[in-house]
Structures are given as structure tokens and as C-alpha cells.
Amino acid sequence: MLKVYCDGGARGNPGPAAYGFVVKEEGATIKEGNGYIGVATNNVAEYTAIVEALKWLGPNKKGAQLHFFLDSQLAASQLNGIFKVKNAKIRELLVKIRELENEFGKIIYQHVPRDQNKEADKQVNIALDQRSI
């Protein structure tokens, strides 16, 4: 099972926003990704991280089982069907995630404390720092 760490952040909420993700296979990092997404909310950035990770994983690890680690309890709860999605932009991203999920086996979304998601957070800050130069 691949481990996928995702994070998103905005400096201000909304504000300049970015996503980051790290994919690990058997403990080794096989992919780090990040990107600036413009002015957005933290929640949009969190969901964008998942979309972008899935978009990379599709052609590279099709059929794999995935274990996502998210420091957004809201995103984890919504993806697991515990909380409803009321925001229209988040709903669009959720629909995209559900489409992309079809290329994989079992998928787990788990909330983790922020200190267990430092590598993905680092990717977010790399994208934000590069944008502000």
C-alpha cells in the first residue's frame, strides 16, 4: 500500500495558496509534488493536494492501494462521508477526486496531527516561497 501525505495552505484565508504531496513506497519517497494555485482558501488547497496526488498516481501507480494522510480533519471527515460537503468549490474537487479514485484499489483517508505531515507541509511552503520571490 502506497502512503500519500497531502497538505494545502493559504497565507491568509483566502490568500495566496499552494498544495504539496509526498508519495512513499515501502518507506522510500518516490514522488514529491507542489504547486501554487493562486488565491484560495485552506480547504480548497487541501483538496487540490489530493487531486494533484491522484493525477500523478494514475499513470504511475494505477491499481495501487492508497493510504492518504491528511492534517485537515475536515477533509478527512468529508472524504470518509462523515461530514457533508456544502461548499460548491469543494464539491467540484470532491467529484474530481471520486472520478480519479476509480483507477485504484482500496483507498484510505486518515487524519493525522500536523507534526506527522511535515514533508507535505514543506512542499506547500516551497511553492508559496517560490511564488513570493
UniProtKB/TrEMBL annotation:
Tell me the CDD domains matching this sequence: RNase_HI_like
Q: Where is the RNase H type-1 domain?
A: 1-129
Q: Which PROSITE patterns match?
A: RNASE_H_1
Q: Pfam families recorded for this chain?
A: RVT_3 (PF13456)
Name the SUPFAM superfamilies on file.
Ribonuclease H-like
Molecular function (Gene Ontology), one example: nucleic acid binding
The name on file for this protein is: RNase H type-1 domain-containing protein
Q: Which organism is it from?
A: Candidatus Curtissbacteria bacterium RIFCSPHIGHO2_02_FULL_40_16b
